[in-house]
Amino acid sequence: MNQQTAALQCAYLDFESFTENFGRSQRTMLGAVCFTPLVNQSTVTPSGAPLAHVAMPAFDIAGSGNSTCEVWGAAGVFTYGHRNALHYGHNGEILFGMIQLPEADFDTDAVRDAGKTPLQQAGESAYRALFELIDELNFPHILRVWNYIADINGSSHGKERYRQFNTGRQDGFLGNGRKVTGSVPAASAVGFRAGPLTIYFLAGRGAAPIAIENPRQVSAYKYPETYGPRSPTFSRASVARLGGSDVLFLSGTASIVGHETLHVGDVVAQTRETMANISAMVGEANRVAPQAGFTLADLCYKVYVRHEKDVAAIHGELRRTLGPAARLMFLQADICRTNLAMEIEATAGHPMDFSVRP
Ligand code: 3EB
Q1: How far is Cα 76 from Cα 86, in angstroms, rounded to an integer?
Q2: Quick check: is 343 catalytic?
């Protein structure tokens, strides 16, 4: 990431390379997220760039250790700051933001009296903060959001935690006068063991991204109520025009057809179905942005795997489909439905420095 010439770029680095490259005070990135079993509370780098630590270990396939840092960069001069807990970096064109909210901060009488749970309120507050920041700094278009939720499959206060999050997130959108169907941001929502609700995002100032749905799946914002009283607010993918290139952000994608989970208990079949979904969305992306010509081989894949024992089989299936040059990164995570063993998100259309190579 030495050459900051692209409108947006990403790198995956092991923890040591990250510290070596970014442990100094130069302003060389938009922001970063370290997936690591190491406990670390810092929210900025020495230069002031936003930095989130997520207690989600990487699977050590390449011998690169179990910490991986995702670094977002761009051309230009960076401005860093924070608005309460929301830390951001931007270059006037694109903004990276990150907020971490401990649920304990919302375990109050006021939250209880409002009939809300702490996680629900944390979600609502995080999205309100996000919208207030992008309104204030004038980055109106959310390109992509990542949501990391502790114990996502568990229940607290008598409610499934992913459902609590969905209610809070939707209220955050509605509270800012935003739509909760149609053109909503691409996103992922996955779980880790314990830690603050962690949300990071990219937002732009230029043209609005194009939201993409998957013809093989019911839109998540139209999921039937059996999946929860409030639908998840995300689109299946987005294509953003950034500095003359089309950038594709694929949301977390799993073995879901229609709205139902397929291949329960068969992780290789889940991987195949997930790739069929990704392939369909790449087709849709090329339909709305024909000049982009995205291919499965162009994508950089971030693979969330529930059980370590499944990593080799998933890796094998992806290598079989995508070839040995595939850019794959594996994280240990809980998927939002207990019957899903894996989920994949991906990006394309921007430079990617994949130092972590399985
Ligand atoms: C799914 O398709 C699987 O709640 O933001 C994928 C991507 C999933 C994003 C979210 C959830 C989310 O429903 C789960």
Answers
A1: 22
A2: yes
pLDDT digits (tens, 9 = 90+) for 290-319: 999 999 999 999 999 999 999 999 999 999
Find the catalytic residue in 213, 273, 317, 343. Answer: 343
Task: Compute φ and ψ for 112, nearest 5 degrees.
Answer: -60, -45
Tell me how far the alpha carbon of residue 234 lies from the centroid of ligand 1, in angstroms.
7
Residue 61 Cα to ligand 1 midpoint, Å, equals 25
In tens, the pLDDT along 29-38 reads 999 999 998 8
pLDDT < 50 regions, the chain: 1-2, 357-358
For residue 304, the model assigns a pLDDT of 98
Q: Within 10 A of 276 (CB to CB), how many other CB atoms are there?
A: 15
| Ligand 1 midpoint to CA 219 (Å) | 10
Judge if the beta carbon of residue 254 lies within 6 A of ligand 1.
yes
Please, are residues 347 and 250 in contact by the beta-carbon 8 Å criterion?
A: yes
CA distance 121 to 338: 23
| Homologous superfamily (CATH) for 9-349 | RutC-like (3.30.1330.40)
- Give me the residue spans of the domains in the chain: 9-349
Give dist(CA 111, CA 275) in Å, integer.
41
Q: How many CB atoms within 10 Å of residue 317?
A: 19
Select from 161, 188, 261, 274 the residue to mutate for testing ligand 1; criterion: most ligand atoms less than 8 Å from CB.
Answer: 188
Structure token digits, residue 33: 């997220």
Residue appearing with tokens 């996955």: 190
Q: Tell me the two tokens of residue 309.
A: 């024992």
Rounded Cα distance, 295 and 279, in Å: 8
